[in-house]
Each structure stands twice: as structure tokens, then as C-alpha cells.
């Protein structure tokens, strides 16, 4: 056990967060995301949701201040009437992290998949909310 490490952060996730460099991206994926077929490195965080994972990761992970929007979300597909209320939870969590944050980058579904395939890692969760996927771009300390 270590002090001040959120218990949701597994040793494997801690290792990945520490390995990542400036500009690398990590995906926090909801339960519907095709994580296994997208990931260069797949980490499992079954039984947990994205908000609690996002909050824990942002206690350790600096967001990139050199890009306009270091946090990206999958945009709602045109014609889908889903209203992702979870995004407001994300907004509160990111703002509370103390990192520079103006707004989310909205990424079209298939562009999001392409970006996820290039991400350093994908963390699969059991999040049930639709459009709950998040990409974080790592910054510097």
C-alpha cells in the first residue's frame, strides 16, 4: 500500500500513467466501447465507472496546457437523441482537478476510434452511460 494513491488506481494503471510522456493520450472507456479491439495496451477497471476513475487519474495526471483542449469526448452521432448528462459530471471533475480547462474537444465517433487506436492505453470500465468515453492528453509538471 502507498499513501495518497486512490485505491481505484491499480498497480498496472499506475505504471502506465508513469510511463506516459508529454502529449501521450489515454482513453477512459465506457462499457460499450470496443476497448479490446482498439487498444495498444488494454487495462481493465471492471466494476467501476468513468467518473470515479477520471477523478482518481486527475489527482496524478497533469493535463497538457499546450493544447487548447486536452480532454476529448466522443460526440453524439447525428440523429441520436441521447443527451449525455455524464458530461456535466466530467466538467466538474476536470475543473476541480486544478488543471487549465476551457472546454471539451468533441470528436466524431469514427475519428474518436482512430484516435483511440493511437492512444498509449485504453482503460475499459463498466460505465453504463452512453457517450461516456474520455481521452486525456498528458502534460508536464
Task: Explain how this protein is built.
The model has no long low-confidence stretch (mean pLDDT 97). With 141 residues, the protein is of the alpha/beta class. Helix 4 (86-96) links the parallel strand 3 and strand 4. The protein is built from 5 helices and 6 strands. The protein has a 6-stranded mixed sheet. It has one domain (11-137): RbsD-like domain (RbsD-like fold). It is globular and about 45 Å long.
Question: Which CATH first-tier class would you pick?
Answer: Alpha Beta
Please report the distance between the alpha carbons of the first and last residues: 24 Å
Please tally the β strands and state the result: 6
Instruction: Give the name of the CATH superfamily.
Output: RbsD-like domain
Round the mean pLDDT to the nearest integer and report it: 97
What is the overall silhouette?
A: globular
Reconstruct the topology from this structure.
Elements: H1 11-19, E1 25-29, H2 35-38, E2 42-45, H3 50-58, E3 71-74, H4 86-96, E4 105-107, H5 109-118, E5 121-125, E6 134-137
Parallel strand pairs: 1-5, 2-5, 3-4
Antiparallel strand pairs: 1-6, 3-6
